[in-house]
Specification:
The complex is a heterotrimer of chains A (about 375), B (about 120) and C (about 230). By secondary structure, chain B is mainly α. Chain B is about 40% helix and about 0% strand. Among the domains of chain B are: about 35 residues; about 45 residues, no CATH class. Classes of the chains: A alpha+beta (about 375), B mainly alpha (about 120), C alpha/beta (about 230). Chain A: It holds the Pfam family FtsX.
């Protein structure tokens, strides 16, 4: 056992010395490799944590949202809906909602305005944390907006929504119904959409079917469907970063393959020498195994650790440009880490294994040549 | 062999593998530490989720705030039926976030108007 | 010297056997080399000297015939055992020295002992002692390609001796050396012989063959022994 350990140590010693000869190249490869793992692991950790958090929160969103469609497009809820819906069997509760979007040219951001029953007094608003950051406002400050009809409205910031709810509230502006209708010139008696609670959760689908039969120009959005869509949306195998990255990955794979498999004449000669002076084929392969395993293992470990820090301590700061696009508001959420060991294992295998094999396979042939080749050349 | 005079070497270099394996062991430790850290952060942050849940339940919110540049990105679940194909089914998205989203699945819903075509 | 240390009996070596470009390098050689002697193989290039050396040194197996090292018939041993035998009993000094570039002189000397799994410190000390013996202690940490030809050959000899073998095999050892260094090499061989090593070398350098140091000179031509004094 001791001898075995010593031997592996010595083989690693040789590998390290051999890699050290082309220090810049080896380091460059290691850094590229680490960067690739870092991005992959960041995407993986971020989307997984986000998906879990979104699923937990959205489980409390309305069971059914009913929109009115005109010519296939979202339109305001007509007044008679408010009477017809409660008559449908299975409907427990109906909440008409008033909300909309507002583009703020000052910081070039889009906000979501929402009227609530428990809003602050008229002329006062509650705002989301991300928009408070973007506008640099604090409770008590005044904000003036030029509404869509050209009139200027001034609001007092009554408070900022809990930063812990930023995932859902980053861009919200909460105000009273009268303020909302006044600001947007919203027709009296009409609403944006209707949130519906059903009596028996297992009957959601049936209730929805009955509603859509009774109101053929309505569109029903079921919570279960939304949850399922979000689950698919954040599926870690999808996503733009992976798509963009696949090009980089391919380039890296080619580089690694070239480095690993293009066994230089020099290296082939060295393997011949090692065999001639008494190394077995197995020793040569073990040495090469350590080269591949140490390099890719180091890259995996450091890439993963960096990704953990990036996602859970720096709030995925590097995703900002991707998620943010041309918008200004960037929610900063401290996600509770959710780690799927299977994903981590998959990532480890996908990064460590192919490289190690790519190093090992071409070496196999060179290592099984006759040791006298070195004398004959 | 003639017995070679053995002298302790003036500065015998520590084998390079010691450093490499040391770094590797440190990395493994750091890797293990991320799981401990994750558990700690989860315990610390899990209660915060209640704030989001409370707000969602109170206001009937339907979508997390990930992207705000267009309504089909801000509220993917509430967007128009064909928001993702506003101009043409193969139109390129104006916003990078749009490419994150597959076409809406709402066609599956009990939706006579959606299945009419 | 009763029992020969290395014994060849009717040994043939054919490369690319059975193919159109088959080529017989060694054609039925029988030879016995005694323990503790210095033997030289000589002959024009293409006469089969180096091939014979690879057979003597267990680097290759004969196509037919028998090779015995001590009382062991090695001609049919599997590669793994040959390697072990080579590690234990043979030290090789190649014509081009065949040092691993980029590694220090000490690391090069230690290489043949790596598969044995002794502690690094022990090996390092042993390598250092050998380098001191060959007046290379001050160059121990230098990459081998920085060393002069003579220094490189001494590193190669030190490497051949790290596992303390009883047979030293050298292929054209003076081919790349000037007269002074060649004489220095012969001096070293004399010392190793005094240590009790058996030495087999190939050469066509008169400086070596006429040095009086050779106990035995075997002349080869076209893969056959034409003269074995």
């Amino acid at each position: 056992m001791r001898t075995w350990l010593n031997r592996q140590r010595l083989l690693i010693e040789y590998t390290v010395a051999a890699l050290g000869r082309r220090r810049a190249r080896s380091l460059g490869l290691l850094l590229t490799y680490t960067a690739v793992v870092f991005v992959l692991a960041s995407v993986m950790l971020f989307t997984h944590a986000l998906r879990q958090e979104a699923a937990r929160v959205l489980a409390h969103s309305p069971e059914v949202v009913l929109q009115h469609l005109v010519a296939g497009r979202h339109a305001l809820i007509p007044a008679d809906y408010l009477e017809r819906i409660p008559r449908q069997r299975g409907v427990r509760e109906m909440t008409p909602r008033l909300w909309g979007y507002f583009y703020d040219p000052v910081v070039q951001a889009n906000y979501t305005f929402m009227a609530t029953a428990d809003a602050p007094p008229p002329g006062h608003i509650l705002i989301g944390p991300a928009m408070a950051r973007a506008r640099g406002v604090a409770p008590g400050n005044l904000i003036a907006w030029r509404a869509y009809d050209g009139a200027v409205h001034t609001f007092t910031v009554a408070g900022i929504l809990d930063a812990h709810s930023e995932l859902m509230s980053a861009d919200l502006v909460l105000l009273g119904e009268d303020d909302f209708r006044g600001f947007f010139n919203y027709p009296e008696g009409q609403y944006t959409d209707i949130a519906i609670a059903v009596r028996n959760p297992r009957e959601v689908r049936n209730v929805a079917t009955r509603l859509s039969e009774a109101l053929p120009d309505a569109r029903l959005i079921l919570r279960d469907e939304v949850l399922r869509t979000y689950a698919a949306l954040f599926d870690w195998r999808q996503g733009i970063v992976l798509a963009i990255l696949s090009g980089a990955l391919l380039a890296f794979a080619l580089l690694a393959w070239d480095k690993a498999s293009g066994l230089a004449a020099e290296e082939r000669r060295e393997i011949g020498i090692l065999k001639a002076i008494g190394w077995e084929t197995g020793d040569v392969l073990r040495m090469k195994f350590w080269e591949g395993a140490l390099l890719s293992g180091t890259a995996f470990l450091s890439g993963y650790v960096l990704a953990h820090v990036h996602v859970f301590h720096l709030h995925g700061a590097l995703f900002r440009p991707v998620l943010q696009g041309w918008a200004v508001l960037y929610p900063r959420f401290a996600l509770p880490p959710e780690i799927d060991p299977l994903q981590v294992l998959t990532l480890a295998l996908l990064t460590v294994l192919p490289y190690t094999v790519a190093v090992l396979v071409p070496c196999w042939r060179a290592a099984t040549t006759d040791p006298d080749a070195v004398m004959r050349s | 062999m003639r017995p070679a005079p053995f002298r302790p070497l003036p500065s015998r270099p520590r084998p390079a593998s010691t450093y490499v394996l040391g770094v590797f062991a440190a990395l493994i430790a750091a890797f293990a530490a991320t799981f401990v850290d994750a558990a700690r952060l989860r315990a610390e942050r899990a209660p915060h989720t209640q704030a989001s849940i409370a707000l969602t339940a109170r206001l009937g919110l339907t979508d997390p705030v990930l992207m705000t540049e267009a309504r089909y990105l801000r509220h993917p679940s509430q967007a128009d039926l064909h928001a993702h194909f506003q101009d043409h089914p193969l139109a390129f998205d104006l916003f990078p976030g749009g490419s994150l989203l597959p076409p809406p699945r709402h066609a599956h819903l009990a939706q006579p108007s959606a299945t009419a075509d | 010297m009763s029992q020969p240390l290395i014994e060849l009996r009717e040994v043939c070596k054919t490369y690319n056997d059975g193919q159109p470009n088959a080529f017989t390098a060694i054609d039925g050689i029988s030879l016995a080399l005694e323990h503790g002697r210095i033997s030289a193989l000589r002959g024009p290039s293409g006469s089969g000297k180096t091939t014979l050396l690879t057979l003597l040194g267990c680097l290759a197996r004969p196509t037919s015939g028998r090779v015995r090292i001590g009382d062991e018939d090695v001609s049919a041993l599997p590669e793994r055992f040959l390697t072990e035998l080579r590690r234990q009993r043979f030290g090789f000094v190649f014509q081009q020295f065949n040092l691993i570039r980029g590694l220090s002189a000490r690391d090069n000397v230690m290489l043949p002992a790596f598969p044995l799994g002794q502690p690094h410190a022990v090996l390092s000390a042993r390598a250092q002692a050998l380098l001191e013996r060959f007046r290379l202690a001050h160059r121990a940490d230098a990459p081998v390609e920085w060393l002069s030809g003579g220094e490189q050959q001494r590193v190669a000899i030190a490497r051949a001796l790290i596992n303390d073998p009883d047979i030293l095999i050298a292929d054209e050892p003076t081919a790349n050396l000037d007269t002074r260094l060649a004489e220095e090499f012969l001096q070293l061989m004399a010392e190793l012989h005094a240590d009790g090593k058996t030495i087999v070398l190939t050469s066509h350098d008169p400086l070596v063959l006429d040095s009086g140091l050779m106990h035995r000179i075997v002349t080869l031509r076209d893969g056959r022994v034409v003269d074995a004094q």
